[in-house]
Amino acid sequence: MKRSFYQALFFTTRFYVALGSIAIFFVVTYFFPALYIVAQAGIAVLVFLLLLDLFLLFAAGKQPFTAGRTMAGRFSNGDDNDILLKLVNNYRFPVSVKVLEELPMQFQMRDFVLKEALKPGEKKELHYSLRPVERGEYAFGNTNTFVRSPLGLCQRRVTADNSATVKVYPSFFQLRNYELYSFNGKLQELGVHRKRMIGQSMEFDHIKEYVRGDDVRRLNWKATARRGNFMVNNYVEERSQQVYCVIDKGRAMKMPFEGLTLLDYAINATLVFSNIALQKGDKTGLVTLAAQQVDILPSTSKKTQMNVILEKLYAQETQWEESDYEKLSVTIRSVFSQRSLLILFTNFESMTALQRQLPYLRRLSKYHLLLVVFFENTELKKITKEEAHTMEDIYRQVIAQKFSYEKKQMVMELSKYGILSLLTPPQQLTLNVVNKYLELKARSLI
């Protein structure tokens, strides 16, 4: 009992200030002995108030104050995840509370403090959010609350044993947002644009009367002759096409932007894109590449595929070795018998790096529709827009412009061999990949 009492007792700054002031006053009484009685009265009052404060805080029972934490069973990577704290004051007097959360070590937040004041018998809810930037398990510790009475000379620590482990998955918040906007027909508010139909699908749907704006090349002359009105054929997008997201897990994907690595950006985009492809009726699959290891999740249009993809993406980690694209091309050639859309998430920081892998990319594009997605270095772009004041700034800008121009050269180099490419900032990856996919569907390339 005594041990728990001492572990829960903490003196406040107010107490130490008062004690220090009285000590100084005792020193002053050495020169003015008449004030010694006043100093003694001051120390007596302080002791009395301290004992009264201890009585108020510790004589109320074991649970005069409670705190509980409520949060989701899993977190979304790269997004703000809400956490709720419920505080209940069972004291008969108002208290001020300082809450110290034992947050997971991945956040490196050692000064996280919440302060609140509660009236007698009052219940309050505190909200805060955390943004993880790494996938994996996050261990939350206890919730420590330091309660003080209106006297404020000491405080009582109340510890809620609510430790828990939360798994951080790829950004399913983005997935929900896209699903919600898609359901309400508001994807354009997110930046997803419908593409005008340039080509024509060969999958017939039905015949309808001609209205202004219909393609006259679709006129059905036999139906027109029977009905006496212009009739046109209607086609639908081809479905059940195989679509694979190929994620490079080599060292080039370890580069961070705004806390997230390129691999995490690719994983978040893959999750959203796979869901949209399934909604379009296509079969989605996953290929991961690391060093000489190629893992393939076969494509399917089943509703359970999204859960399988989510669990598969959760465990992916970058490697320090360079990925083996020759192994990738050989494996895909031997496993995939049907022409598929391959969306390759990778990164090339120099033309030399692209040239090393170009023969294998050309081999893949010979049998499949290949879209190479690589990243624009936004930090270099910021340097190119800065105003140069010194010779060193000029050198830095010239080097940054050289690397930025080299990225555009890579796009032209890939297009020279008929390989589709997408150069995008990491923050806009999901949006640009979805728009590119809709464009390919509109052009009937898949």
Automatic annotation (TrEMBL):
Q: Which residues cross the membrane?
A: 12-32, 38-61
Keywords from UniProt, A to Z, are: Membrane, Transmembrane, Transmembrane helix
The highest taxon in the source lineage is: Bacteria
InterPro entries listed in its UniProt record: DUF58 (IPR002881)
What's a Pfam family this protein contains? Answer: DUF58
Q: Where is the DUF58 domain?
A: 208-371
Entry-linked PANTHER family? BLL2464 PROTEIN, SLR2013 PROTEIN
Name of protein: DUF58 domain-containing protein
Which species is listed as the source? Chitinophaga tropicalis
Query: What does the record give as the organism's lineage?
Result: Bacteria, Pseudomonadati, Bacteroidota, Chitinophagia, Chitinophagales
